[in-house]
Amino acid sequence: MRPDYRVAFALAGATLLAASTSNEETLTVPLSGQAELNFAHPFGSTGDLDGSGLVKLAIAPAQRKVCYDFSLSDVGTPMMVHIRQAKALQNGPPIVSLFTGPGGELDGCAPANTRQLEDMIAHPDDYYVSIATTEYPDGALRGQLAS
C-alpha cells in the first residue's frame, strides 16, 4: 500500500498557513504632544504639550483586528484616534480608525485589513497612533509604534 502524500501535503500547507497568519504582536506606545506634527497649529508644529499618554495595542492579523487600551493625562476629550502610516517627523494617511466621535471608548477593538496589520508588525516604525481632541482637533498626541 502506498502512503497518501496528498493528506500530508494538505496538513503541512494548513499548518504553514496557520503559522503565517497567527502572529499576534502586543506593543506599548508612549504618546506625547511634542511628537505630533500639527502644521495647522498657529504656534508651531506641535500638539498638546502638557498632555501625555500610553496605549497598549494588540495587533491580530488572523482575527483581522487591533485592540487598544489607552491611558491619557492632561488632554481634552478625545474625538478621533487613528493608526496612520508614516515614519517619525512625517504625516500619513489613516490606516485603522480606532474610534471617531467625542467620547469614544478608550479601550476596545477595531476591524482592520490583515495585510496592513501584518505590515504593522513587520515594520512598526512606519506607523504611528494619532489622537485628536476637542482642544486640539488637528492632533493632540502622537506615538510611533516603534522608534
Automatic annotation (TrEMBL):
Residues 25-147 form the CHRD domain. This is CHRD domain-containing protein. Pfam families: CHRD. It comes from Sphingomonas telluris. The lineage of its organism: Bacteria, Pseudomonadati, Pseudomonadota, Alphaproteobacteria, Sphingomonadales. InterPro entries: CHRD. It comes from the Bacteria.
